[in-house]
Amino acid sequence: MTDLTRLSAxxxxxxxxxxxxSSVEATQAHLDRISAVDGDIHAFLHVSDHALEVASDxxxxxxxxxxxxxxxGVPLAIKDVLVTTDMPSTSGxxxxxxxxxxxxxxxxxxxxxxxxxxLGKTNMDEFAMGSSTExxxxxxxxxxxDLDRIPGGSGGGSAxxxxxxxxxxxxxxxxxxxxxQPAHVTGTVGLKPTYGGVSRYGAIALASSLDQVGPVTRTxxxxxxxxxxxxxxxxxxxxxxxxxxxxxxxxxxxxxSGEVLKGLRIGxxxxxxxxxxxxxxxxxxxxxxxAMEAQGAEIVExxxxxxxxxVAAYYLILPAEASSNLAKFDSVRFGLRVDxxxxxxxDVMAATRDAGFGDxxxxxxxxxxxxxxAGYYDAYYGSAQKVRTLIQRDFDAAxxxxxxxxxxxxxxxxFKLGEKIDDPLQMYLNDVTTIPANLAGVPGISIPSGLAxxxxxxxxIQFLAPAHEDARLYRVGAALEAxxxxxxxxxxxxxxxxxxxxxxxx
Length: 506
Description:
Helix content: 25-40%
Shape: globular
Strand order of the largest sheet: 1-3-2-4-6-5-10-11-9-7-8
């Protein structure tokens, strides 16, 4: 009998449409999988009480002959940064423990309207601040490849849920790499859309000029299918682009033929040396490029001289915006309230924020408040924005000569839990290759490129494209995916050593 949890979302959707399996059966299979393995993984903060009810309704509508979306009946995990009416929305923080939103995030509403079945809310670094999901107020998520290692962050819960076959699809958010870096370390596919290409309405804000919602999947086609559902203009989001988007699923199907690689110009950044990158990461990156070159792609050295300043600029811009966005958690309107007998409003606010925010959030609020303070604004925040402009110009110059830019998705494979928790700088440097895309607003995708020779853990390759050219990433990503899956003899995740197909950890 087919293990429904091992099917891609596209394959599961075909079985649902053909009537070979019901949504209730597919949903129950994934709920059973969560019960079996999530005690080890801790990908979910909350599992829906309504999933089977929703699935049953999809089955009823399909039986009645109703026209349904391409993914109708397919289960979906939702990063806890996205608000939902029927499940708590905490953003991984104690300050929002138990919070029930009066509305759904736009992407959640669109997923429901398309007939996807929400399974639950996934774990994350508190307010999306982190690269390891160790900063969650509710405990860390573990990597399905090695339970002693991190699943990336901030969206480690979504990536781990998909990698451990607890969900075929997940929603994530990416402010500086929080979709792509977890994809890199878990052997999954993660895409950050063009800024404004997917609505942020109902995504609990971290840094509003950087945040972007996107798909987390096991295949490029699955990512395109989910992107087609959640993308497009939203009047509720002032940054949403009124742009005509093509079908991303169609782009992925087109790319799978491999023809797109002939004559494709792939830029490799000369200022991104191997030093600082794990040997297995660099080797996998070069091997993927060689495979594409053998199919007719052209590898072009490009210059992006300001990328090296991206991390420094980002860690001024993000904390400054976070300081402003998180000011709303004041103990007065919603969320946690710590009463101080005889105290003033300011006393209550201070006690609440001290108890409700974790150390990393406090660190970034302090840094951001300082960067915005009188006398320092121009020296820090203003200078960081100037660097951002220079990085955008680097992209413009590069894309005048190449179709896509390729980099390793992150410098190392998954590190061990606790290894970098007390070293913020080393944690921040995990996003050295992903941050520039957020600063410039361009789309980026990470797809699995193999296993590092020294530790057998997954490695990803990242492609970046000009703004609005998300479809180009789907074509290129699907082309490389097809090449690599053929060379591996099957999906990379089939080689994950920890989790069996029918039970908990081995």
